[in-house]
Amino acid sequence: MSDYKMHILVCGGTGCRASQSEKIVANLQSELEFHKIEDEVKIVTTGCFGFCEKGPVIKVVPDNTFYTEVKLSDAKDIVNEHIIKGRPLKRLLYKNPKNDYAVTSTSNIEFYKKQVRIALRNCGFINPENIDEYIARDGYAALGTTLTEMTPEEAIKIIKDSGLRGRGGGGFPTGLKWEITRNVQNDVKYVVCNADEGDPGAFMDRSILEGDPHSVIEAMAICGYCIGASNGLVYIRAEYPLAITRLKVAIDQAREYGLLGDDIMGTGFNFDITIRYGAGAFVCGEETALIHSMEGLRGEPTFKPPFPSVSGYLGKPTNVNNVETFANVPVIINKGAEWFSSIGTEKSRGTKVFALAGKVNNVGLIEVPMGITLREVIFDIGGGIRNGRKFKAVQTGGPSGGCLTEKDLDMPIDYDNLIAAGSMMGSGGMIVLDEDDCMVSIAKFYLEFTLDESCGKCTPCRIGNKRLFEILEKITQGNGVPEDLNRLRILANVIKDTSLCGLGQTSPNPVLSTLDNFYHEYEAHVNDGKCPAGQCKALLRYQIQAEMCTGCTLCFRNCPVGAITGERKAPHHINQALCIKCGICHDKCKFKAISIV
Amino acid sequence: MKVKSLADLKKIKAQVQEKIKLREQGENADKIVQVKVAMATCGIATGAKDIMTYLINELDFRGIEAVVTQTGCMGYCYAEPTIEVIVPGKDPLIYGFVTRDKAKEIIDQYILKGEMVDGVIPITYKTIDE
Questions:
Q1: How many structural domains does chain A have?
Q2: Contact residues, chain B, for A257 at CB < 8 Å
Q3: Complex ipTM, two decimals?
Q4: Domains of chain B, each with CATH number or no CATH
């Protein structure tokens, strides 16, 4: 029996660390020491809880009290009131935004209610830098059973039967990929983990590596056994320092325990993992570009076939899977294919992690069963739209995806439905947009991203996207003409059909999908010279309504370019030729006399 | 510590299980026995802390899956130490004047066999949910 009566779990993910969770740990520790109860209460730094919106978050067990937005100064009260006197601190509890009631336990928080955590099973539960805690959660048991009780074919069959598909975006069946790589004859093969997460707003792979790195290591070893490889490589972007640190610690611990290295568990199977750093290029998430980058070549994609399964890293058969895909593998081996395939939909089994962002109340990382509707994700888990605004669209699949609208809210989310609706699963970024977002600007934003990230190898992507971007810019500047809309569509389709790799083939998707769903917004820009959402500055005009202006001179004094004139106590006037549309006068006016037209 | 076989791994797992047991129990708190010890000033003054330690050790020694937590003043300051025992599927019971012997009796009779034990404080209040 350990002497600890309570554990305080403090989130140590990048988000919460940014809001000083490390210092909170130190403060809690010194408070415990001050009261001489450091032997009774243990502080554990865990991975991401997912509820990043309310970070830093802290959970006290066994009573499961969940504290949000904890400040450094709160450490004292947590120890004094909760730990010593047993009175949960009401002011730090999560409040249900719908009725303002404080909720004590995580099981009663809407954000967690509909989630099913498989890939994130240990995130926010164990200390990622402690291999023992992972082992206590059945860690490495799947590797043990696979090595001692199964042939590679049997293990591959389990993964195939489970229906697991690649979580990086493409959705290729994982078991099939392993089988293909296994069947290629070669003395050297490689297992590669793709941790080059590049979609703006997506951070599930980072969180898994930060919160549960051992699950990825274990799965890579299982994959190595299945395909006949003894070398693993993790390709991770150098911008993920915390994930890299924790992964390194985990690899060292696994080696120390003999779970990586030679003759693992006395079975004669050898496997080890090395880390390769990427410089953060979006295109390197594409597997052929990723492999070239690891080989020390330029991160440019090449034509497939040959697929990496046949000729990949250094020309050897290479199996590339994404972090989240790997994180699912040990659980599938432990619990069986049938259990996994009972979750989700017909063609998309299991769960998917989404990074929920944008204009929702509960921003964070969620894992939900496939087949859940967008409505449940946005309005139940996400807690609805911020500031009571109206839902407009949700962008999934990042710069390669498209947007879904009101009509798609009740569609079950899976790989195939999203594609049918003109978007894609992607790696799981989900950005919610409200009525204040201009869809033309959103399309322009994503296109600007792909424009930056295009490797420049093929013409349609390099030049086509540039031209596409210029047309969008022209429209948002107020210089668009009706023919531009048709031009956009033709050019987008050409880029889609003729680009070399996935990046170029999908880059016009945000444009096409906004054209399909929000054509009227494009029309308003080019025909009426108006931006319905009031976002495109060039199309806005600030105007003072004479009858409401009191002549207080506040706007006059704050205008940075001197565009406002008028006498005291008489209505003021904005000189449109000078106005730079900064909006300061609109924000400063106390009488709502300045309107946007 | 080298893991040389699957049996080794299982051995390590059994050893380290304790480390996270508290957290796993917390996740399933509503399915196992819960004991809440009133640990306000009056409770602490009458030895609630000692009772809590005793309960934790005794329940663990007998292999009973249970969560023992502390709570604030329950209002029965005349009857401290007081504890609240929740057996899944049954109404919560509050016991007053809990000594080590009483705690042992509660575990033996009520938690294990479901038989009533003297010393239950009748509930004289209503919660806001009712």
A1: 5
A2: 1-3
A3: 0.77
A4: 1-28 (no CATH), 32-130 (3.40.30.10)
